[in-house]
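Reproducibility note. Readers wishing to regenerate the assembly model reported in the main text can use the exact inputs given here. Chain order matters: entities are listed in the order in which they were concatenated for prediction.
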Amino acid sequence: MIRFLIQRLILAFPTLLGVSLLSFFMIRWVPGDPVMILLGERGSSPAVYAEMRHKLGLDQSLGQQFLLYIKKVMQGDLGVSISTQQPVLREFWDRFPATVELGLASLLFALVGGTLIGVAAAVFRHSPGDYLLMGASLIGYSMPIFWWGLILILFFSVQLGWTPVSGRMGVMYDVPTLTGFLLIDVWFDGEGGEKFRSVISHLMLPCIALGTIPLAAIARMTRSSILEVLGEDYIRTARAKGLSYSKVVFKHGFKNALIPIITMVGLMASSVLTGAILTETIFSWPGIGKWLVGAIQSRDYPVIQGGVLLVAIVVIVVNIAVDGICRWVNPLFREGR
Amino acid sequence: MFRFFFLLLPVFFFVFMSFEAVNAKPKTFIYCSEGSPSNFNPQLTSDGPSFNASSRMIYNRLVDFKSGGTEIIPSLASSWKISDNGLEYTFHLRTDVPFQKTDIFNPQRNFNADDVIWTFHRMLKSDHPYHEVGGGRYEYFKSMEMDQIIKEIVKINDSTVKFILKHPEAPFLADMAMDSMSILSAEYANQLLKTKTPGKIDTNPVGTGPFVFKRYQKDSFIKYEAHDQYFMGRPQLDQVVFSITQDPSVRLQKLKTGECHLIAEPSPTDLPGIKNNSQLRLVEGPGLNVGYIAMNTEKKPFDNPLVRKAFNHALNRDAYIKTIYLGNAQKAINPLPPSIWAYSKNIQDYSYDPELARKLLHQAGIREGLSVELWTLPVSRPYLPSGKKLGEMIQSDLAQIGVKVTLVTYDWPTYLAQSRKGAHQLIELGWTGDNGDPDNFLSVLLSCAAIKAGSNVARWCSTPFGQWIEKAKKVSDQKKRTYFYFEAQKIFKQEAPWVTLAHATVYRALRKEVKGYQLSPFGTENFYNVDLDQRENNKNP
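Running the prediction on these inputs yields the following structure tokens for the assembly.
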């Protein structure tokens, strides 16, 4: 296991260098620079323009800028955001917990919902219910988030008035930031139950919007994986021994069907990060997706470079963790066996 | 049994977490803004969301714009005197203005001349201890070339300051009312220097304004409380919350459910729906803006005034106002909007006349088969809601006079960068004024110097036009200035570097219970006079 971890970590370095290189140069190749956007329609005299570029270090050659950037990254310094003048790392940490909270919640939603639907469809295979569930999950899988999110808002918030439209918590509450995870932070400052309810009600719609695609994928995967397992000899043996059907399905079937499902969840974890960009924009969720989109629009170079690098690190860590879990769940995957 | 449980699970979940009420005990006003502020110091920023979150909420200036207008009124300065040569501006300051008390600052003295000097020296002097704090760019101040206008600021006594200018500058007083000229506390700045946390001046703001900054949760919300000692009287609202909501359709849904009282920039297509909703109200007013099509006069065939006139006759602007602006605009004749005092009513507009346009093209020696490129605005701006749709309408209008139009567009930063270099032929663009002074339109958009600055996208340089606006800049007598600007507008219309499109109406959607809101022609927000009718408020979910 340790050898595996070391191997994967070493492999991560060239990936990260590639990501830095790409994000650094691609954003600079696109015309328009941060100073231009700061000035907008107004424009400025060439002297003022040059002075501002100099202040941002944009007057140096691209090579020089890149070397300086890499040197600073090695020292753990990702630079300062052009628009807010705050360190990129701090800006990231201020928003990262929001994305993680949303991501984990929607993964949990997808996992629980997806496996339940998948098992149900497998148990009642080829019944109208099965066709209905699988048809619905195909639709769910192809639903664009920006459209689905708005439909959810229109139905649950505007028509029914059950949930708030957007945000992370009711604006009249104030929660001191400790961990950044509101589901935890609400308990430190009194009125915990009330605030917790507010947080959950805000979390529901974005969680559904972001979790629908993974849910659909997991449901379909679970169904086919269980159906495959249910055809195995040991299932027939278990049935022959006289075990009840539900015991066979959950104890013998489900457990063995779990490996492809976990792999699927791992894959989905990365795609949830991508989906978070859209979800966060629609639901005004103050996470890193929204932050990065804003940075690209305003050509905030340090934020784009640093943000992309940090997201890449997160994706790599998640992938390693998923692979690790797969090994741990299924001994057959471990090396030397 | 399984199936039943699956079906019930989500229903159970929703019922358990039923919707919470928005009403809070103190009078809380919620504004759904369109973006996050970059910081809370208007000296350092140039974007609308940052100005809205700072300048009119937290700060005041020496002079201010009258609420809902462009008229200059006393604010921190109770009166002022301008010397006859237009070079010295003496401001007499109020002595009864306290700064705000916050968690980390307890002011020991009232506002005085030191604060004014400190505020401007920070931006002007590179050896000022705060000059480099926050990046030291001061893009607004510098792009207005204030450092080229102000020579010196002298403290006469605690309640009098004198600004000495390098050259006469008639718009100077209006300049002093702009957001970037907000006055900060020198006492607070010195305290922060002692604790070695100067950066807090821009993130934990202290001003003299109607609301005190409480907390900013990044990309999420900003909270303010009423400033009890505000020198114009305490605001009626107890709390103001900016709920940052980027998507315009989501903003509208929040307004409908009562999650906000006022929303920024509703999209034009939603206006009829807002008008028909009994819970909502739409306020509109003339905007201090102009949308236009600029013809690059450095490029063929637009170097020929006849061609430019032909294009002016060829475009059916009334139809654009109906379709693109949905009627929420006034047809533009001059580059200045009619709410500015120097607007000339004596200018003859170009009529919509494709036949005449054709003739003019013939006169210019252009037969059939002219093809041009039109850049369409990639973003929705207050002065032009939909660039692409407009482009298509122009395309069909010009086809009638035998001109083939190719539509081109880029993303916003690229659009700005390329147009600044003059890469375009025809381009859609516009402008919202900063201070209500005619110079802020005519110099910024049409002077020869503005070609280099990139804001004169027609790249039109006319010596007589330039002379009139230079003259108008040097005298402070409004009658004389008006005459000079009338002459300049005549030349503009004759030479026709633009097709002037429209002055778009600015509008805000708000809930019925909001009282006293006044729309600013600049498009910025000021909530000092706003109140909430609690009776109406209680009826809401």
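We highlight two features of this model. Residues 478-495 of chain B form the longest helix (18 residues). Chain B touches chain A through 73 residues (CB under 8 Å).
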